[in-house]
Please model this.
Amino acid sequence: MTRAGSALLIVGLVFCAAPAARADLPADVCPGRYEAAAGPLAGGTEAAQPADFGAVPEACPGSDLSLRLRGELADHSGAPDFSGDIVASGTARARRRIGGRGWVSIAVDFLTYRYFDNAGLVGTGPSFGPATVGYHLVLSTAPRTTVAAYARALLPIDTASQSRTETGLELGAAARARPSRRWVVDGGLSLRERLDITGGQAHGHLEPALLAEAWFAPRPAFALFAGGSLRLEAAPDLTLTAVIPRAGLRGALRHGLWLAFLAEVPLAGSEPTQALASLFLGWAP
Model:
């Protein structure tokens, strides 16, 4: 599994670095050059969104490469014989344009380290995987708005899962609007079907998610944003998973590099995560 996942990551990096087609879209909504307010930063808890599975992506085509380091603090003190855990993870993600309106994406959780305390029984351990691969396509565009649809698959490459397999398919849409030169609004809808296979038995979970956020960019190379996401489990039982406000910033460095920070604090729902912080380093050719 580790070798297959590593090969998948290398293929994604090489594919992203190759020359890409130019986007044939209005420059007002999807600029061809780097912009700090470029689109949503992939968030959500590590356990619920492995390799960005279920995270609403960008609505504009692009070719880039990013690395995310994320820390998660969860409190399970309400459950019998369990207190909590700390998770640190690293995710690599690549995108590449295909034609003027389409692009592919690949994401790999190349390292996840968990520290958990189960009623005083402490355990730790690193793991590799899983990974996702997706295809995105702009459906409609106007001078100040664009809407894209996407399909993404969760690949069961995960060294942490010894007795179970998790895979799934995600469909969704993302939108972006620029009401003025300094303001951008984006978000979208994700509908994922997650399949857990344990002991030869398959258990399906239908999980919708919504995202909305607003960016303010005093200049193209720097932007602040705030918004929130809502995640549900629609089947087998209707459950509110999480209501998560989010805020952060992104700024340009030299030579096409950019740096970003995202903070999320779930306020309601069944998700036990108390706080989540992500640091991003990206490169846009």
